[in-house]
Amino acid sequence: MRLLFLGDIVGSAGREAVIRALPALRAELKLDYVVANGENCSGGKGLIPRHADALFAAGVDVITGGNHTFQHRELYPYLESTPGITRPLNYPPGAPGRGIAECGDLVVINLIGRAFMPAHYDDPFRAVDAALAGMSANRFIVVDFHAEATSEKQAMGWHLDGRVTFVVGTHTHVPTADCRLLRHGTAYCTDAGMCGARDSVIGDDIQAVLSKFLTQMPTRLAPAEGPAVINGVLVEADDTTRRALQIERVDREVS
Ligand SMILES: [Fe+2]
Ligand SMILES: [Fe+2]
């Protein structure tokens, strides 16, 4: 099984790059599944159903979320009605949507971290334990841990080592160089990075972000435009044991 996980897709630059590049990437990398974090797809914050539909049409199998998933209210019924989309599992009860998506023999679990994050979510460690307790072991399980702190992400990797196929971090939009197999066969990467404008500050317009830092005034941020990067992580896993065999970065520039 070969799976590509794409980091947070940011704004139209990221969206259009993924939509344009994915059909060829699927063939070139012989992909069975594509999972992408979509929390910044629409205007840089959140996701609207039309953009989710476009990603699915381009070859994304499962769209995951994060702290910006609930930005646009029109997504709420879509989260309930669309099996291929997740929001973090450990939101408190009552949040719309689901934290787990199933697609063939793939299960995607979406979690959100608590260290340095703006809200107090439920415990992601206990949430994933409870989810795995009720789950058949005979499937590929991929966990998108949407979190700020590298330590919390690494801890989650070890917590899940040997119990899932792949643990990947999202949210920082900066790709990390630590792709590896953990001791018991789980592939791990602290952050997938982003799909968005190359010349940007984590996907946003450089001048707007600089103005915010320099003046400390409230500033409306917007996604940057121009040539885009696609940051992703490719994992190959054994069809019988469901353990990871190989993990590598896939980072491309799309003009
Ligand atoms: Fe993000
Ligand atoms: Fe985020």
Automatic annotation (TrEMBL):
Keywords associated with the record: Metal-binding
Name of a matching Pfam family: YmdB
Gene3D superfamilies: 3.60.21.10
GO molecular function annotation: 2',3'-cyclic-nucleotide 3'-phosphodiesterase activity; metal ion binding
UniProt key word S-adenosyl-L-methionine: no
TM helices/strands, residue ranges: none
Binding site for Fe cation 2: 39, 67, 146, 171
Name of this protein: TIGR00282 family metallophosphoesterase
